[in-house]
Amino acid sequence: MASARTGRVPPIDTSGEAFVTVKAPVKIAVGNLPPAGAYILATQPTTPMRLRLPVAALLLSASPAALGCGDAGPGGTDVVRVLFVGNSLTYTNDLPGMLERLAAAGGMIEIETRDVSQANYALEDHWNTPQSRAALDEGNWDVVILQQGPSSLPESRVNLVAWAETWGEAIRAWGGVPALYMVWPDRSRLAFFDDVRGSYEAAAEAADGAFYPAGEAWRAAWARDPTLALYGPDDFHPTTLGTYLAALTIYRGITQREPPSLSSLALTPALDTLLHEAAAEAHSQYWRPASPDPAPLR
Fold first, then answer.
1. In the chain, where are the structural domains located?
2. Which end of the chain is more exposed for a tag (fewer CB within 10 A), N or C?
């Protein structure tokens, strides 16, 4: 199925599972961001933008009462700007667009997204792709959501954690909040769900970022109904239902509110309730907020 936003047909995405060697990323000094595509530190300091304080309260707090966002949209609603840096597990069924539609259906906030995901990309690939780094630099992004393949293998975990830390430092230097979007293993590796979660939790910790447990929401949904079709025909990429469940999880992680429903999906009330309950269970058990910036920039 081609992505509604890109027209690309997603291949089997094994990124994050096929690493043999692990390249160590360059450590970034805050205020010295390298230019897009470069491995060396820039010698000329930049002036990073700071995270807007109301958005910081929303994204760094575990309290639902902290909902208060930054810029106001045309209708007076608050706007949260979200950049997705991932691969075909993000752009299949247009997860960013679905997140925008959820926010529009709720009416409490507006979510604006941009997606720089590329087929089979890991975070290391994005770091060395000028377009991905340029998207971050263009930003004023409130949240930057990072995702690669399942990364359940030990060497893949090392790679994910290292590059999540590198991205996290750059995201925070520009005033945003990093977040890790946990995916799922392919159907032949269902026994490795815990390993996938462990890799993404470790990456979120390394990035001082939030953790959005979409893969665990899938498991919670299957615990309620094992027949749910969350995998697509290739037994790896999500169906529209699987993407919707991921979007519910991410929406809850960003807003700390009960997600609305998407009537355009024409789900039965019972199925829609089941998916909302699964997202809520995963969030309550596994979600973690981003850590406050330990050294605010002046």
1. 75-286
2. C
